[in-house]
Design brief:
The complex is a heterodimer of chains A (491) and B (483).
Chain A lengths: L1 H17 L5 H24 L9 E9 L4 E7 L1 H20 L7 H20 L3 H10 L1 H11 L4 H29 L7 H7 L6 H18 L8 H8 L2 H26 L1 H6 L1 H20 L4 H25 L3 H36 L10 H4 L1 H14 L6 H16 L1 H25 L16 H19 L1 H15 L3
Antiparallel strand pairs in A: 1-2
Helix pairs in contact in A: 1-2, 1-4, 2-3, 2-4, 3-4, 3-11, 3-15, 3-20, 3-21, 4-5, 4-6, 5-7, 6-7, 7-9, 7-10, 9-11, 10-11, 10-14, 11-14, 11-15, 13-14, 13-19, 14-15, 14-18, 14-19, 15-17, 15-18, 15-20, 15-21, 17-19, 17-20, 18-19, 18-20, 20-21
Chain B lengths: L1 H6 L8 H19 L7 H17 L8 E3 L4 E3 L1 H24 L5 H21 L3 H19 L6 H32 L4 H7 L5 H19 L7 H8 L2 H26 L7 H20 L5 H21 L7 H30 L4 H4 L2 H4 L1 H15 L5 H15 L3 H26 L13 H19 L2 H9 L6
Antiparallel strand pairs in B: 1-2
Helix pairs in contact in B: 2-3, 2-5, 3-4, 3-5, 4-5, 4-11, 4-14, 4-20, 5-6, 5-11, 6-7, 6-11, 7-9, 7-10, 8-11, 9-11, 10-11, 10-13, 11-13, 11-14, 12-13, 12-19, 13-14, 13-18, 13-19, 14-17, 14-18, 14-20, 14-21, 17-19, 17-20, 18-19, 18-20
Chain lengths: 491, 483
């Protein structure tokens, strides 16, 4: 079933490529059906998921490259499950959003579906080489998506994105190879590596591997100073590309930190814990401050991603450094929930910005005002997602950030204090954004904007509803995440 | 083993593939001169048949017990079987591309002969265990390659390319022959294994000098820095299918020859060749990639790219004595390299035929006007860059793994940096094809030969990449050699 979920998008994508060229509607329909089927498959995984069943459920193994001990080994725990569901949801939302739009419909649908396979496979992979494979399978389609359907500076942004991530992933590959060679007998099996912790007593080697993996995952997350690709890629990508890039691809880095780096070498993460804390706090403040300075709405949302994803890095650092298992679990829960919440909220924010750009042809904040009067439905969704992003209680962002701050408090008052400062700054960013766009009066010369189409309302509404659902009934998500962190926190 | 040696003299069964191909090539010489009109296709068909037969005869060697033939001068072992199969496969794919490229011209009949002779030379090099034969076969792989570069005799760039290629080759091979005489002088034998056992008492400095000189010849064929100088000019001047052949077959042959020489004649660290080769590998890959960044002719760019690729492969050769994973890694990578490089050159051949040029402008918007060719070129380039699930990815993992396991972690880091850097120029080509609109729309030359060459290579790139075991298990068989 897990294999089906992974390869359903790719299969649909291959079917799409064979469809006749004069029927873009058929292409769109098929792609949407593929995404919905993937979502159904993911829900089946969820229904069959046992919260007390550990991190290797739905496991399937088959030989892949037996000569070097790499296998097709997939399984899911609670965090993987949550991220796979998120992937399926966002993939469906994106397919609804672009329905009937975009030229070269075949290639567009195929690339997004291929991305889906890469992401789901990555979240399920229990073999480091397989993880790496899916990591890069998710990289190439995004390069084409940004490069073909992106904005003015798309070629530059696509190349920058490709080079940064590739440099990071090669560092990660070297780290994986070192872990592999440290295992006796050599194996890429993640569960085996987590059990054996092969580099625990090799201070130099473990430091090198730690930094290699940190660079690999850090580029994706992204952490300061490896974030430089993000504003360009997010801004130049087409709306649906930004949604997937921010909503899902940043999670590849976060998932790597939580599910590979921390469990495979907890003592090394603890050794460099303060460094990681400082990097996370820097990213937190930098993301918020940079967002404050933006006049382009899309760029603003892009920078807040740096702020939000820093909670994941902070959660991992806190979990490694604190001695208390309860605090560890709290930190990891926060990190995992933040990933899901950020995927929903920021994915939604990028959709909203895309809708405005589609209507007004600009994303400059100054060109908008008083939207609450002209576009009430839009403003409602926009406000909901923005409040969620700034961490209003009752919405998903609050649950995540609250848990991370709570765990950080057990480590150090100062760390918690700086985190709260970052939170306040991010709140300011979103309050200002709402004040300048939704309130007030439209600037002179601004065109009247049309109301939302049902496609737009459904796609963004789904995400806003999810955020509310997680905020009101966090138990749904936390039950799954908890089952994973309970195990991850034992080291 | 004097008895065994005398018994295996004149073992004609050991050279059936070589005899078939050389015999056909000689028989085709008068026919090629006479052939007119549709008969010009005849040599290519004969060559294809001969190569398929040769593959059939070669394949069983993969599981044969290693033995020697012709009084210990020629090996029959899985190592030879593997490298000969790779050369034959490369020749078949080049044959398709050449036949399509020169259809209806007088070169159509001539090209297969040069191709067969060069292949025989390369195949011989993979099997030769005698210094004299090594020199002979190195010349034999080189001379027909010069002719392939000069196929269109009236073409000025081709003339210049051949001239450089020839002068450089003649000098390099002469230096190498000189180096081999040192090995003979030190041991009194031409046989690699006897040299290997009797070198132990010899002066290390002389051995190092001999090895250095021998490396000039192999370095020339493998395009290792600083013996690579001919390659960019030759690749640019030749027609794209011929460039593809020169970028693959002599390289495969030289890797086979070098591995056999190192493992049979220079064991036990008589010369610090692992460290020497590691340094050359680092320099070669870095230089190749840095130079490739600034090229505008795509054939020239691929020449520098293939220099860099040789550097990657040399990384595992440096580790060949230290880890058992190194030999299969080199073998696998050569198969992957063959698929992706020949696919790239076959598409360039189409582009060249279409626009008469091979720069970025020629491929601009190719994704629109020739979607299949563009997709094949994009896959080949992404594979060269090492993106999964393509063959170049698995190959790079095996090479990096061999380097780390062989104690060259620093080299693996250098290689990883290089792979990140290389993505820049590979991605630039892909971007040119897909992120721009075509300058002028023109149908690509759709010829069956191109389709076969591109199709076979692309299928290999994808299949060997998704299921690396397909090629890796064969490469593992091919790592056992007569020692």
């Amino acid at each position: 079933m897990l294999t089906t979920t992974i390869f359903l998008p790719l299969l649909t994508g291959l079917v799409v490529l064979t469809l006749p060229h004069n029927r873009p509607d058929l292409v769109r329909g098929t792609a949407l059906v593929g995404a919905v089927l993937t979502l159904i498959a993911a829900i089946i995984l969820w229904v069959g998921f046992d919260p007390s069943g550990g991190n290797l459920q739905w496991r399937m193994t088959a030989p892949w490259i037996p000569a070097i001990g790499a296998s097709y080994d997939i399984a899911i725990g609670g965090i993987s499950l949550a991220l796979i569901l998120l992937t399926a949801v966002l993939l469906t939302v994106v397919m609804v959003y672009v329905f009937g739009e975009r030229d070269r419909a075949h290639a567009h649908a195929f690339l997004f579906l291929l991305l889906g396979t890469g992401l789901i496979g990555l979240f399920a992979a229990q073999d480091l080489l397989l993880f790496y494979l899916f990591f890069e399978v998710g990289l190439v389609p995004m390069y084409f998506i940004v490069g073909i359907w992106g904005g003015e500076r798309r070629r530059y942004a696509a190349l920058k994105f490709f080079l940064y991530t590739r440099a990071g992933s090669l560092a990660m590959l070297l780290g994986f190879l070192a872990l592999y060679l440290a295992m006796e007998p050599h194996t890429f099996s993640l569960p085996a590596i987590i059990t054996a912790k092969p580099l625990a007593h090799a201070p130099l080697a473990s430091a090198l591997v730690f930094f290699a993996l940190l660079i690999g995952f850090g580029v994706k997350l992204p952490i300061v100073p490896l974030h430089n690709w993000l504003p360009d890629a997010h801004v130049e990508a087409p709306t649906e590309g930004s949604v997937v890039l921010a909503g899902l691809q940043l999670k590849m880095g976060g998932y790597g930190l939580v599910a590979i780096l921390l469990p495979a070498m907890p003592e090394t993460v603890a050794r460099f814990g303060w460094l990681l804390v400082i990097i996370a706090l820097l990213s937190l403040l930098y993301g918020a401050l940079a967002a404050l300075a933006q006049s382009d709405m899309k760029r603003l949302v892009a920078y807040t991603s740096i702020n939000h994803m820093a909670y994941v890095a902070l959660g991992v650092a806190v979990a490694a450094m604190t001695g208390s298992v309860a605090a560890r679990q709290l930190a990891l829960n926060g990190a995992a929930v933040q990933m899901v919440s950020h995927g929903v909220l920021t994915g939604g924010m990028f959709l909203m910005v895309g809708m405005l750009q589609h209507r007004a042809g600009t994303r400059e904040i100054d060109r908008f005002g008083g939207l609450i009067g002209s576009m009430p439905a839009f403003s409602g969704l926009f406000g909901l997602l923005a409040f969620g992003s700034l961490g209003l209680p009752g919405l998903s962002g609050f649950i995540a950030e609250f848990q991370v701050i709570g765990a950080a408090l057990q480590l150090s008052l100062w760390v918690a204090a700086v985190t709260v400062l970052g939170l306040i700054l991010a709140t300011g960013v979103y309050l200002l954004l709402m004040a300048r766009t939704l309130m007030g009066t439209p600037p002179p010369g601004a065109d009247a904007l049309t109301a939302l189409s049902s496609r737009e309302a459904w796609s963004a509404g789904t995400l806003a509803a999810l955020s509310v659902l997680i905020g009101i009934l966090p138990a749904v998500l936390i039950a799954a995440v908890d089952s994973a962190t309970r195990i991850l926190a034992q080291f | 083993m004097p008895e065994a040696a005398s018994m295996s003299c004149m073992d004609l069964g050991a050279v059936v593939p070589e005899m078939v191909l050389a015999g056909l090539a000689l028989a085709l010489v008068p026919i090629a001169g006479w052939a007119r009109g549709p008969w010009r296709r005849f040599p290519a068909w004969v060559a294809l048949l001969g190569l398929l037969i040769a593959m059939g005869v070669t394949a069983p060697m993969l599981i044969a017990a290693p033995r020697e033939a012709f009084c210990g001068t020629y090996a029959v072992d899985p190592f030879r079987g593997f490298y000969q199969l790779v050369i034959e496969a490369g020749a078949i794919i080049t044959l398709f591309a050449l036949a399509a490229h020169f259809r209806g011209t007088e070169q159509e009949a001539q090209a297969p002969i040069a191709l067969l002779m060069a292949s025989v030379g390369g195949m011989g090099l993979a099997a030769a265990t005698d210094l004299g034969l090594i020199v002979l076969f190195l010349q034999m792989v080189s001379f027909p390659s010069y002719l392939l570069v000069l196929l269109v005799r009236s073409d000025k760039p081709a003339q210049e390319a051949t001239f450089k290629y020839f002068l450089y080759g003649a000098a390099a091979l002469a230096v190498m022959a000189y180096g081999l005489t040192f090995l003979f002088g030190l041991t009194g034998s031409l046989n690699l294994r006897i040299i290997g056992t009797s070198l132990a008492g010899a002066d290390r400095a002389w051995i190092a000098l001999a090895f250095g000189l021998v490396l000039v010849g192999y370095g020339f064929e493998m395009t290792l820095v600083p013996f690579h100088v001919w390659a960019p000019d030759a690749f640019q001047g030749a027609t794209a299918p011929a460039s593809g052949f020169v970028s693959v077959v002599p390289k495969v042959a030289a890797f086979a020859g070098l591995l056999r020489l190192l493992l049979e004649a220079l064991p036990h660290n008589l010369v610090p060749w692992p460290a020497m080769l590691a340094i050359i590998a680092a320099v070669t890959m870095s230089f190749g990639n840095l130079m490739a960044l600034r090229q505008t002719s795509l054939k020239r760019l691929l020449a520098y790219s293939s220099i860099a690729q040789a550097g990657y492969m040399l990384m595992a050769v440096a580790a060949a004595e230290r880890t058992p994973s190194a030999m299969p890694a080199v073998g696998y990578y050569l198969v992957a390299y063959l698929c992706m490089n020949l696919a790239a050159f076959a598409v360039l051949a189409q582009v060249e035929r279409m626009f008469g040029r091979d720069d970025y402008v020629a491929i601009r918007g190719l994704g629109r006007c020739a979607p299949w060719s563009a997709a094949a070129l994009a896959l080949a380039l992404l594979s060269l860059a090492g993106i999964p699930p393509l063959a170049g990815f698995a190959g790079k993992v095996f090479l990096l793994m061999a380097a780390i396991a062989g104690g060259f972690a620093w080299l693996a880091v250098v290689a990883a940096l290089n792979m990140a850097l290389a993505l820049y120029y590979y991605a630039a080509i892909v971007a040119e094809m897909y992120f721009h609109e075509p300058e002028r729309t023109k149908a690509v030359a759709a010829r069956a030969g191109y389709a076969w060459a591109i199709g076979l290579c692309t299928a290999g790139t994808i299949a060997f990449g998704a299921i690396p075991t397909l090629a890796l298990s064969v490469a593992q068989l091919g790592s056992s050699m007569l020692r």
